[in-house]
Amino acid sequence: MSGKVKKRIVILIGCAVLAAGMMAVAASLDMPGETVMRWFGAAYDSLSTMVLFVLFCGALGFPVQILVKAFPRALLMLHRISMKWAKVLLVALDTAALFLIMLLVDRLMSTVLVGYAILFLTALVMAVLSMDDLEGWDKR
């Protein structure tokens, strides 16, 4: 065998081992994750449907997040609001947008059922974590 073929076989085996490891981790997290999700009133048929839920939320949320984050940044650059109010505005808009996107995906997927409380809490936590995106925009 040539060097290129050996290299590709090694890469293929490495990818297979990595994929198997990722599946093992996902399977080990499925049971505790499902228990926590049930505490908050969520249910799903399988881990793959939950992964699809997250992927669809991310795909739909990406363009919306660009618009949501642009509004407070623009107001900061124009010096219309302070950094404190920009963060409050970002959290409010980001929470509302994420909540509505996750609610839409939840309604469209019959295999996933997520309660309003977990949708709101997830959206709020993700919005609070994105507050650091505004740093430095008031000085431009």
Explain this structure.
This protein has 140 residues and is mostly helical. It is built from four helices and two strands; from the N terminus they run H-E-H-H-E-H. It has helices at 3-39, 47-77, 83-108, 116-129, and strands at residues 43-44, 112-113. Strands 1-2 form a two-stranded antiparallel sheet.
Topology:
Elements: H1 3-39, E1 43-44, H2 47-77, H3 83-108, E2 112-113, H4 116-129
Antiparallel strand pairs: 1-2
Helix pairs in contact: 2-3, 3-4
Rg computed from alpha carbons, rounded to a whole number of angstroms: 20 Å
Strand elements, count = 2
Low-confidence stretches: none
Alpha carbon gap, first and last residue: 58 Å
Give the neighbour order of strands across the main sheet: 1-2
Q: Main beta sheet, described?
A: 2 strands, antiparallel
By DSSP (H or I, 4+ residues per run), the number of helices equals 4
| Helix residue percentage | over 70%
Overall geometric form: flat
| SSE string, helices as H and strands as E | HEHHEH
**β-strand amount:** under 5%
Structural class: mainly alpha
* Residue-averaged pLDDT: 80
What are the key terms here?
mainly alpha, 2 strands, two-stranded antiparallel ribbon, 77% helix
TL;DR of this structure?
The chain has four helices and two strands, in the order αβααβα.
